[in-house]
Amino acid sequence: MLSGFVRTHAEEIRRVMRYLLAGGANTLLGYGLIVLFMEVFGLSPHVSNLMAYTITFFTSFALQRSVTFRSAGDPRAEILRFTVVYVGAFLVNFVALTGFVDLMPKLLAQIAASVVFVVASYCGQRLYVFSHRGDRRS
After folding, report:
1. What is the mean pLDDT of each run of 10 residues along the chain (138 residues)?
2. Which residue from 56, 50, 55 is spatially nearest to 27, judged by alpha carbons?
3. Per-residue pLDDT at 135
4. 3-state secondary structure of 21
5. How high is the pLDDT of residue 30?
6. Phi-psi bin for 117: left (phi > 0), alpha (psi -120 to 50), beta?
7. Distance CA 117, CA 129 (A)
8. Distance, CA of 125 to CA of 123 (rounded, Å)
9. Whether the Cβ atoms of residue 123 and residue 58 lie closer than 8 Å to each other
């Protein structure tokens, strides 16, 4: 049963794995920036979060476009759609962060909110940004 699921969904499983690897690298960069802004520069969790997400926007687009979705689409159109998804996922993340900072330590709240961002972002990128059939390869 499990092997049948894997065979049927092999391409999507590989895509999710690439997303997690590329996104993981970008998330480590972003989280490093958040820690830097909060712990070294003494900025608030929300300002630190906003600054890190702004900086990592461009690395995220490049990684997701080339590594995860291997897109051959028009990069100008894709970056516009990516911006919509990124901002939407960031807003969901920001709301989650607002709730999480009252429930747990601030750095742990950042991690929890980033999980929310990852799920929202993947769904938006898969279904909207890179949804065309022009993939270069699986």
Report:
1. 77 93 92 96 94 91 95 95 94 95 93 91 95 52
2. 56
3. 41
4. helix
5. 94
6. alpha
7. 16
8. 6
9. no
Please name the residue that has the structure tokens 């080339």.
66
Q: Which two tokens stand for residue 72?
A: 């051959």
Q: How far apart are CA 32 and CA 25, in angstroms?
A: 11
Distance CA 114, CA 91 (A): 11
Q: Is the pTM of this model over 0.90?
A: no
Length of the chain: 138
Contact 23, 63 (CB under 8 A): yes
Per-domain boundaries in the chain: 11-129
Residue of 57, 61, 60, 78 lying closest to 132 (CA atoms): 78
CA 3 from chain centre, in angstroms, equals 28
